[in-house]
Design brief:
The strands form 7 sheets. Strands 14-24-23-16-17-18-19-15 form an 8-stranded mixed beta sheet. It has an 8-stranded parallel barrel with strand order 26-27-28-29-30-31-32-33, surrounded by 4 helices. Strands 1-2-7-5-6 form a 5-stranded antiparallel beta sheet, sandwiched between helices. It starts with a strand and ends with a helix. It is elongated and about 100 Å long. It has 885 residues and is α/β, with parallel strands linked by helices. The chain folds into 4 domains: 4-245, Dna Ligase, domain 1 (2-Layer Sandwich), CATH 3.30.1490; 256-357, ATP-grasp fold, B domain (D-amino Acid Aminotransferase, Chain A, domain 1); 394-527, Phosphohistidine domain (Glucose Oxidase, domain 1, 3-Layer(bba) Sandwich), CATH 3.50.30; 533-580 and 609-633 and 686-884, TIM Barrel, CATH 3.20.20. It is built from 35 helices and 33 strands. The longest helix is centred in the C-terminal third of the chain and has 25 residues, at 598-622. A hairpin with a 2-residue loop joins strand 21 (496-499) and strand 22. The structure holds phosphoenolpyruvate (PEP) and magnesium ion. Phosphoenolpyruvate (PEP) binds at residues 573, 575, 634, 759, 780-783, 845-846.
Length: 885
């Protein structure tokens, strides 16, 4: 099996591994595929991702086999182009780029113009007939290579360039002449000599291997790691390396470079969308240094922009490009994100990939493409990332609210966001961790800002187009973003910004509308999202194709109503303890806990009963006719205890006990390890009157709703933290007794079920016998993960990050189910439960019930339903459909 694949020129593409993204990465696989279907791709080769994994694991560097393969592949490029690397008369120049299985925009390294040295630069000047171009390319190469491969601070080069321009009285780079660049090259070389104590490498082979190593190493850079963590990309994948003959978009006015999407990545509209720059190299477009121009005439006119679009300025190359767009969309049956270069009038394709898109665009494209018969309904369901729906479910700005518009930039990533202005990424992260909503405002963003972008509610940049780093990353993260708002100027010394004639400080409030590009002072009112349109269509398709039911975890009528709007088909978990925290009833709860004997507890419980009944009644009314799983009290009692003297004092006044007495009782209730302490059904066993009161409240409420509305809810009374059959037997008898008593009093009865959570390993192991007592199981995978791994769910955030970084866990096991470990317990309990009771109802109500990967596992195990928090209900509906396709 080779570890190097060539493309372009005479290549046969016979080995299917070459077009497998896991082997050659997304970029490498698609370059091969484009070349194979006859598109103009500069020749090159791809080193496989396995080589990266090997390189990063070992200390031995590159194997002889790899060196031989690369030498052969280089020959392929040289023969196809008719130039050779390091040849002084007619040098070949190459680009060296990363390319992982999935795209990680800007996270890894790239080196362009490799192959230049003091001799080959002269050859390039001669063959191109353009001395300025040759020296400009050389200085770009030295800067990029020194930064990426040699680790020299790129600021030093920027500074030298600024000084050179100042000396000449120039404002733009374009004013620099050949000699100016040549002088700068000498300057750059002395910077390298001073910084490293050795000269810039002249040996082109050393340059090439240095660049390959740097690209491999960049897989493990801090920013790549952060990106992987945020996007759930395993650290073990590695990146491929693509080495490709350079084509030049910076060879004068018949040359250009650009990026394009076959449909609008922000809205999904079926219109070519892109940006280009005449006489520029690829990085110029994405880096946001020059403001790129519109690709099509229509887009330019819509934006009222002056500089000519590519369609108008280079009609021939544009025509060719448009034909390529059509071909690629048909070939990949998806929206493509394309990089191209025009060298002296000739079009070259540098990259194509399925383009990143906002959730709105993903939905629209999926529904549209199904309408165009490009894909079918099932494929459309699979096209939308369930997690991305999250972006659509959140509020947008109320069109009727007043907007104090400061400026309008580019609508780079939709959604509305308000927050306080923060001017750097670290501070954005700090404040967000402290619970503040922030808007990150930068001149432009770079990959180093990614943690701050993630922490922020929204991002505003002064420079950069729709394909700038900020725009691409924000869209991927689902953060609203306005880019290229050129009226914004930032002063880091006074930590303030000026927008037009308005002065704002860090800490002031700003609102962004990523759908229109508007930047507004203060906070603007928002409205709830639209559930119809493409969203409604896709959800309808999903519902048609899914097997599992989707319920919600909710305990307030407002949440229940919202969840029903989102399509919830019942309640999977109502955590009753949340009702105990209510400010009006906490005192009665505290009296109950601190009572020393049953009589005292019963007095306090009598006060709570009508309140609980009213809670359940409201919920049952909203969820009429649907199953409602109500879980009896779970958390350790000490969670309800008073804190601080004032609370003790207040309690002393109503309870009649002295503060000292209350404090002593509280001390008695202290637990060293409350998560494994006196909680769950252990409370019900020791203080049955608590569960009795709750059961009574449930049944009284259900009977009342049934009588009043004629539509009875179906209560499923759930006992938490069961470890043994006997616990459930005792508590089930209590619940049944209470039900019968209530039905007799009310003169009516209703259907109900008693079941249990499976959230302890022993319960999973003993599920066969527990099922004798349980009509349903609901997997409480939060506690089941905690108790199986022996990792505290409340403390794990402090130490789990290195676990995911080092690949010990692919993902945080409290977010995505540890299918291999905890999953075994779930599977076993499901099987054993069903063996005892064929019609046992099985569901999941841990947080994993809203995680698409975990939902896939639930489908495999054959659970009847998943339950998720209200905003996750649509995500779960779509994920359930995807997992049953
Ligand atoms: C669980 O443990 O998974 C669960 C749903 O219960 P809680 O999160 O309330 O402990
Ligand atoms: Mg639990």
């Amino acid at each position: 099996m080779t570890s190097v694949y060539t493309f372009g020129g005479k290549t046969d593409y016979a080995d299917p591994r070459q077009k497998d993204k896991t082997v050659t990465g997304g970029k490498g696989a698609n370059l091969a595929e484009m070349a194979e279907i006859g598109l103009p791709v500069p020749p090159g080769f791809t080193i496989t991702t396995d080589e990266c994994v090997k390189y990063l694991a070992g200390e031995t560097g590159f194997s002889d086999a790899l060196r031989d393969n690369v030498a052969g592949a280089l020959k392929h490029i040289e023969e196809t182009v008719g130039k050779s690397l390091g040849n002084n008369d007619d040098p070949l120049l190459v680009s060296v780029r990363s390319g992982a299985r999935v795209s990680m925009p800007g996270m890894m390294d790239t080196v362009l113009n490799l192959g230049l040295n003091d001799a080959t630069v002269q050859g390039l000047a001669k063959t191109s007939g353009d001395e300025r171009f040759a020296w400009d390319s050389y200085r770009r190469f030295i800067q990029m290579y020194s930064d990426v491969v040699l680790g020299v601070d790129h600021g030093l080069f920027e500074e030298a360039l600024e000084i050179a321009k100042e000396d000449k009285g120039f404002y733009n780079d374009t004013e620099m002449e050949a000699e100016d660049w040549q002088t700068l090259v000498a300057e750059y070389q002395s910077i390298v000599q001073d910084e490293l104590g050795k000269p810039f490498p002249q040996d082109v082979s050393e340059q090439l291997w240095g660049a390959i190593a740097a690209v491999f190493d960049s897989w493990d850079s801090d920013r790549a790691k952060v990106y992987r963590r945020l996007n759930d990309i395993p650290g073990g994948w590695g990146t491929a390396v693509n080495v490709q003959a350079m084509v030049f978009g910076n060879m004068g006015d018949t040359s250009a470079t650009g990026v394009a999407f076959t449909r609008d990545p922000a809205t999904g509209e079926k219109a070519y969308y892109g940006e280009w720059l005449v006489n520029a190299q690829g990085e110029d477009v994405v880096a946001g240094i020059r403001t790129p121009q519109y690709l099509t005439k229509a887009a330019r006119e819509k934006a009222n922009a002056k500089p000519m679009s590519m369609e108008e300025a280079m009609p021939e190359a544009y025509g060719e490009l448009a034909a390529v767009f059509e071909l690629l969309e048909k070939h990949y049956r998806d929206m493509q994100d394309i990089e191209f270069t025009v060298q002296d009038g000739k079009l070259w394709m540098l990259q194509t990939r399925s383009g990143k898109r906002t959730a709105k665009a993903a939905l629209k494209m999926a529904v549209d493409m199904a309408g165009e018969n490009l894909i079918d309904e099932k494929e459309a369901i699979l096209r939308v990332d369930p997690m991305a729906l999250d972006q659509l479910l959140h509020p947008t700005l109320d069109p009727k609210a007043h907007r104090d518009i400061l400026t309008t930039g580019l609508p780079a990533s939709p959604g509305a966001a308000s927050g306080t202005i923060v001017l750097d990424a670290d501070k954005a992260e700090q404040l967000s961790n402290a619970g503040e909503k922030v808007i990150l405002v930068r001149v432009e963003t770079s990959p180093e800002d990614i943690h701050g972008m993630h922490a922020a509610q929204g991002i505003l940049t002064a420079r950069g187009g729709m394909t700038s780093h900020a725009a691409v990353v924000a869209r991927g993260m689902g953060r609203p973003c306005v880019s290229g708002a050129s009226a914004v100027s930032i002063d880091m010394t006074s930590r303030s910004l000026r927008i037009g004639n308005r002065e704002l400080k860090e800490g002031d409030t700003l609102t962004l509308d990523g759908a229109t590009g508007q930047v507004m002072a203060g906070e603007v009112r928002t409205i709830e999202p639209e559930m119809a349109g493409d969203f409604g269509t896709l959800m309808e398709w999903a519902d048609k194709h899914r097997r599992m039911r989707v319920r919600t975890n909710a305990e307030t009528p407002a949440d229940c109503r919202m969840a029903r709007q989102f399509g919830a088909e019942g309640i999977g978990l109502c955590r009753t303890e949340h009702m105990f925290f209510d400010a009006n009833r906490i005192t009665a709860v505290r009296e109950m806990i601190l009572a020393e004997a049953e009589a005292g507890r019963r007095d306090a419980l009598a006060k709570l009963l009508p309140e609980q009944r009213a809670d359940f009644k409201e919920i049952f009314e909203v969820m009429a006719g649907l199953p409602c799983t109500i879980r009896l009290l779970d958390p350790p009692l000490h969670e309800f205890l008073p804190h601080g003297d004032a609370e003790f004092q207040a309690l002393a006044e109503v309870s009649g006990f002295g503060v000292d007495h209350l404090k002593r009782r509280a001390g008695e209730l202290h637990e060293f390890n409350p998560m494994l302490g006196h909680r769950g059904c252990r409370l019900g066993i020791t203080y049955p009157e608590i569960y009795e009161m709750q059961a009574r409240a449930i049944f009284e409420a259900a009977c009342e709703v049934a009588k009043e509305s004629g539509e009875a809810p179906i209560p499923e009374v759930m006992v938490p933290l069961v470890a043994t059959k006997r616990e459930l037997e005792i508590l089930r008898a209590l619940i049944d007794r209470t039900a019968q008593a209530v039905f007799a009093e009310q003169g009516t009865d209703i259907d109900y079920l008693v079941g249990t959570m499976i959230e302890l390993p022993r319960a999973a192991l003993m599920a066969g016998e527990i099922a004798d007592e349980a009509r349903f199981f609901s997997f409480g995978t939060n506690d089941l993960t905690q108790t199986t791994l022996g990792v505290s769910r409340d403390d794990s955030a402090r130490f789990l990050a290195p676990y995911t970084d080092q690949g010990i866990f692919d993902r945080d096991p409290f977010v995505s189910l540890d299918v291999e470990g905890v999953g075994q317990l779930v599977e076993m309990a499901a099987e054993r439960g069903r063996a005892t009771r064929g019609d046992i109802k099985l569901g999941i109500c841990g947080e994993h019930g809203g995680d698409p990967a975990s939902i896939g596992f639930c489908e495999k195990v054959g659970l009847d339903y998943v339950s998720a928090s209200p905003y996750r209900v649509p995500i779960a509906r779509l994920a359930a459909a995807q997992s049953s396709l």
